[in-house]
Specification:
- It is a single chain.
- The protein is mostly helical.
- Helices cover 72% and strands 0% of the residues.
- It has 5 helices and no strands.
- Helix 1 runs parallel beside helix 3, helix 1 packs antiparallel against helix 4 and helix 3 runs antiparallel to helix 4.
Length: 136
């Protein structure tokens, strides 16, 4: 389990650091005026739905994929399926963050919130055991 956990952590940290670097360089985060809350109106309301849909869809798909993992599989097989579900979750969040950054950078604050959420999804042994319903 420890070896697989290291792999989970490497994948997670690489994706989060990659997003942070993209936001820092492409989003020009050195200028703090970018971090102010944008004006939300009917024209740009669709861009507000991107992070919300990404959050909901990533959690829904993750839970669905984890629930399909059969309990009679070996721990290694469960971890492979869990890793796939986790990567799907990260991909949705990362994709939404990049869409916000590239298409509508005025909403960069919402992309940063997605990055923070993704960073909080740091894989731990307890989280994996809880998600897979593994008892010690």
């Amino acid at each position: 389990m420890q070896e697989q956990l290291k792999i989970f952590k490497i994948i997670h940290i690489a994706l989060v650091i990659g997003l942070i670097m993209a936001y820092f360089f492409l989003g020009n985060l050195s200028d703090f005026s970018q971090l102010k809350m944008p004006e939300i109106n009917n024209e740009n309301m669709i861009y507000l739905t991107i992070p919300i849909v990404a959050f909901l869809l990533s959690n829904l798909l993750f839970k669905r994929l984890v629930s399909k993992i059969e309990s009679n599989l070996s721990l290694k097989q469960k971890l492979v399926a869990y890793q796939s579900a986790t990567i799907v979750r990260y991909a949705i969040l990362e994709g939404a963050a990049f869409i916000i950054l590239i298409i509508f950078p005025k909403f960069i604050v919402f992309g940063i919130l997605l990055i923070v959420y993704m960073a909080l999804l740091r894989p731990t042994e307890q989280r994996i055991k809880r998600d897979l319903h593994i008892l010690d």
